[in-house]
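Batch manifest, entry 17 of 40.
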Amino acid sequence: MSHLLSKAAAPDAHGCIQKITPESANWKYVGFELYQLAAGETLNHLSLDNETCLVIVTGLADVKAGDEAWQGLGERMSLFENKAPYSVYLPPKLAATVTAVTDLELAICQAPAVGKFPVRLITPQMCSRQTRGVATNTRHVCNILFDNLEAESLLVCEVSTPSGNWSSYPPHKHDSDNAPSETLLEETYYHRINPEQGFIFQRVYTDDRSLDETMSVENHGVVMVPEGYHPVGVPHGYESYYLNVMAGPSRNWIFHNDPDHEWIIAADKLKT
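Output type: structure tokens
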């Protein structure tokens, strides 16, 4: 199995099925955890030296963070309902408690920060949504904590890709700290598939092919992208969802397309 692929584990005592840390990924910035909680179960989280985005992936939850508290957050019970999520932003060193009102899938997205922004609720109306690409390159993006809202390091978004389509395509990379041409951003992909027995393909490769991994990813798998291009392909008959977390030395998403495949952009424009 590729060292870039983390398969889901059975839930531990806290409900965690995925835990990616800078230490485990051998990088500096991105942390990602995924929890599955039954109705009535509670998770305590301390953000330490990180800013955190708690994403209610599916289900309903009560969230308390510092002096703020919200009841019954959430709306979608399936990732494939075409709805944006509720999320909560936490600054460093703030404790939060999440209690599942229904069965709950909760993502914890983290990156280093010093505490420039306060705790706040991110509603579906605050997310920005767009459709990118044409034909079999069509995908639907929901920006949760991206250019729609301020943060110190974190960039968080969701992408839904229809059956038989491609996303993160043409292949692009963001592994060079060379703004304004390109920025360095580590990235995780948390994959969900409908129906759940399906799989997707993701390739991660560099120009010199010193890194070149192609993975078959099943439901709840996480792909880590430390560098290189990273396209996703969805087989016929299945829908793809993934939650992206990015962070790096600066909070700017400036990417560079693989020159061998950049012609696709111009060809697609002729179709629109």
